[in-house]
Amino acid sequence: MFPQVVGLRLTPGTGGGGADEAAVDRALAPLSPAARAVFALRRLDGLPDPAVRGLLDAAGVSRASVDAALSAVDALDPVVAASEPADPCALRARPDDLPRRRRTGRAVLAGAAVLAVLAATPAFLPGGWGEDGAAAPPYAQNEDAEAALDPGALRRIPDAAWRQSARTDFSVWPTRGDALEDTALLRRALAVWARPGDDVVVTATPGTQTGPPPGPAQLLYAGESGGLSVVLLYDGLRIVRYAEPVGADSGGALLDFARVDGAGAAAASALVVSRGDGNTHYLTAPWVSRAATTDLAAPGSGDTELSVTDSGLTGAVRTYAGQAAETGETRTTGDLCAGFPVLSLTLQGEPDPHLLADLGELVPAQLTYGAPDAPVPAAASAEARERWARTACHLPRVSGSGVRSVNLWDYAGLSLPDGGGEARWACVRAETWRGLGARSLTEFLPPAGQPGEPGTLTAAAEDDTACGARRPAVLSGVLWRSPADSWYLVAAGSDEVTSVRSEGGVTGAADGRTLVVAAEEGAQADISGRLGDDGSIVMLGG
Question: Model pTM?
Answer without folding.
Answer: 0.74
